Amino acid sequence: MKNVSDIKNNIGKSEGVILNPRITEKSSDKTAENVYVFDVSLRANKVQIKEAIKNIYKVEPRKINVSKVVAKNVFSRGRKGVKTGGKKAFVFLKKGDKIDII
Fold this sequence. Notes:
Elements: H1 4-13, E1 18-21, H2 25-30, E2 35-40, H3 46-57, E3 61-69, E4 72-76, E5 79-83, E6 86-93
């Protein structure tokens, strides 16, 4: 049986890796195919993302794809602005595994 402090340490290690689930129309369509999309830290690699998913959601990812989100210039109310970029991870799960995001 694990101690509460061990569990908190595991979640604490993976805390900065996964920022939040990416909820868009495209990502919600992908959940039917057991693919979940998350915003992740720019410095995170696939191994760290896999460990974070295991620790937080208690499921074993089958595969992970990572892609960068490019920053975009936008105009709002006549002013220039920038929509920040980042990094997103596509997490593929085995059949039968699910992650409750909402």
